[in-house]
């Protein structure tokens, strides 16, 4: 049962043909580069996004040299656009999940924070899709449909207007317990009169497409991060993974209970299949891969593969808060800025690179602590995937500062493999979830090299550096 799984992400689109018996048969990737604008804007060209889906998928099928049984699609979640429902033509740029231009709109709705949190499991922040949809309506166009990019892509492939439950749960307008659009929240964001996609399960076939050759069902829609959670076998409550991509995304399975965080994290739907809903709690760091790209743009490294060649064990007292696009959980401060502190005339580029890696790891350590608090017990281990897991320096820093053993997922295609598993579930009603996922063993493991006391001391100093990125009146 070969499946073409497409992972449409921020930095590119990856297509993987995977067979349950033979594993990954072929991969094809098309790079995309968001445009970072003044005022916190982050955009992508929808036409380039669609073309990347089509071209990568066709190339992967051609390379595999065999027919596939269905197309699965994982998406980047909170990225939105306006489009014409008749022609499918985009009416705006795609506003990326990192975009902060809806921050003022969220500020206007500050009195509704408790309502939003209780209904959705999320926090009122421009990271999520509804504020961006409202921003598009206020500032770009009143024409057509506004939706997340997955609904548009599926419409272009099949003509259907749907979104999956995991993606819908990142909107701020979904009742996360009932898995239904919430009329009161839609009205709050000025979206009550907007056409809304139907919410489908992640193991559902939603239509057919001829975009990749013969007519094929489109099955297995899912948000990118829960797809990676699924692929890495985090099927039980308390099991957690972190994906290192444009940002870092730390998710822990909470089973059938939509936990409400007491520490500023978010709860959403991991997947809905076989008639049951599985939830997860998560925290994010907005800038990880994009922070490394920033280091490259400044000439501190030539490319990401040079991180381990340049980084040093000693950052020379330099601390970095990598809040280049604001601070996400557990602070939720879109106005925070990045900082390097502790520099002297003796500071060298290698120490700045090392401080950046340690800053990324320190923010993740904050997230592992608060996730443990919300779960009622600390995490026992962490599974990791994504391009930057190739950096031994970064992975060791994560182990040192989280004080957790780290297991490296052996494939760079976790998100696509999770989507492929849901595609197989869609086609085979008798297949069980754990049997739809490919078996794996860690490619590498990292144990903490720092003592708990050293990690605690570093993190206390790092928090001070992170707070330095907040407006002065907030530091008192």
Could you explain how this protein is built, in words?
The chain has 476 residues and is α+β, with helices and mostly antiparallel strands. The chain has two domains: 3-232, Nucleotidyltransferase, domain 5 (2-Layer Sandwich), CATH 3.30.420; 284-407 and 444-474, ATPase, nucleotide binding domain (Nucleotidyltransferase, domain 5). 33% of the residues lie in helices and 24% in strands. Strands 18-19-17-16-22-23-24 form a seven-stranded mixed beta sheet. The protein is globular, with a radius of gyration of 21 Å. The mean pLDDT is 94.
Which key features would you list for this structure?
single chain, 476 residues, alpha+beta, Nucleotidyltransferase, domain 5, seven-stranded mixed sheet, six-stranded mixed sheet, 15 helices, 24 strands, 24% strand
From the coordinates shown, what is the CATH architecture of the largest domain?
2-Layer Sandwich
Number of domains: 2
Considering the protein shown, what is the CATH homologous superfamily of the largest domain?
ATPase, nucleotide binding domain
Tell me, briefly, the overall form.
Answer: globular
CATH topology of the largest domain, by name, is Nucleotidyltransferase, domain 5
Classify the helix fraction into a percent range: 25-40%
Largest sheet: 7 strands, mixed
Count of distinct strands: 24
By CATH reckoning, the class of the largest domain would read Alpha Beta
Instruction: Tell me the distance between the termini.
Output: 60 Å
């Amino acid at each position: 049962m070969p499946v073409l799984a497409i992972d449409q992400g921020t930095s590119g689109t990856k297509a993987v043909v995977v067979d349950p018996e033979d594993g990954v048969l072929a991969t094809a990737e098309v790079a995309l580069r968001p445009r970072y604008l003044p005022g916190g804007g982050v955009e992508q060209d929808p036409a380039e996004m669609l073309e990347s889906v089509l071209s990568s998928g066709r190339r992967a099928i051609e390379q595999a040299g065999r027919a596939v049984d269905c197309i699965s699609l994982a998406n980047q979640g909170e990225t939105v656009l306006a489009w014409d429902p008749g022609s499918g033509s985009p009416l705006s740029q795609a506003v990326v999940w990192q975009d902060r231009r809806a921050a003022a709109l969220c500020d206007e709705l500050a009195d509704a924070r408790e309502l939003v949190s209780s209904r959705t499991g999320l926090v009122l922040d421009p990271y999520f899709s509804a504020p961006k949809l409202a921003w598009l309506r206020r500032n770009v166009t009143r024409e057509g449909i506004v939706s997340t990019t997955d609904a548009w892509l599926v419409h272009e492939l099949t003509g259907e207007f749907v979104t999956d439950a995991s993606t819908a749960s990142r909107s701020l307008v979904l009742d996360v317990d009932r898995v239904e659009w919430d009329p009161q929240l839609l009205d709050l964001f000025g979206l009550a009169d907007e056409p809304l996609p139907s919410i489908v399960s992640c193991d559902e076939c939603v239509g057919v497409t001829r975009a990749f050759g013969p007519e094929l069902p489109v099955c297995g829609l899912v948000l990118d991060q829960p797809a990676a959670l699924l692929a890495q076998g985090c099927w039980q409550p308390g099991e957690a993974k972190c994906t290192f991509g444009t940002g870092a995304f730390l998710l822990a399975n909470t089973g059938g209970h939509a936990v409400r965080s007491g520490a500023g994290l978010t709860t959403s739907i991991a997947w809905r299949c076989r008639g049951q809903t599985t939830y997860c709690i998560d925290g994010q760091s907005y800038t990880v891969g994009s922070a490394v790209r920033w280091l490259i743009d400044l000439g501190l490294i030539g490319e990401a593969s040079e991180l381990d060649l340049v980084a040093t064990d000693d950052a020379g007292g330099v601390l970095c808060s990598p809040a280049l696009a604001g601070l996400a959980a557990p602070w939720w401060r879109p106005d925070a800025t990045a900082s390097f502190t502790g520099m002297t005339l003796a500071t060298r580029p290698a120490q700045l690179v090392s401080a950046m890696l340690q800053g990324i790891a320190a923010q993740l350590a904050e997230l592992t602590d608060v996730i443990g608090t919300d779960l009622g017990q600390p995490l026992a281990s962490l599974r990791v995937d994504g391009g930057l897991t190739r950096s031994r320096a970064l992975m060791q820093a994560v182990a040192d500062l989280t004080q957790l053993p780290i297991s490296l997922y052996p494939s760079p295609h976790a998100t696509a493999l999770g989507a492929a598993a849901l595609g197989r579930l869609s086609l085979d009603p008798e297949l069980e979830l754990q049997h739809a996922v490919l078996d794996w063993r860690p490619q590498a493991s990292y144990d903490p090299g720092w003592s708990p006391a050293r990690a605690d001391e570093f993190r206390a100093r790092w928090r001070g550096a992170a707070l330095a990125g907040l407006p002065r009146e907030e530091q008192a």
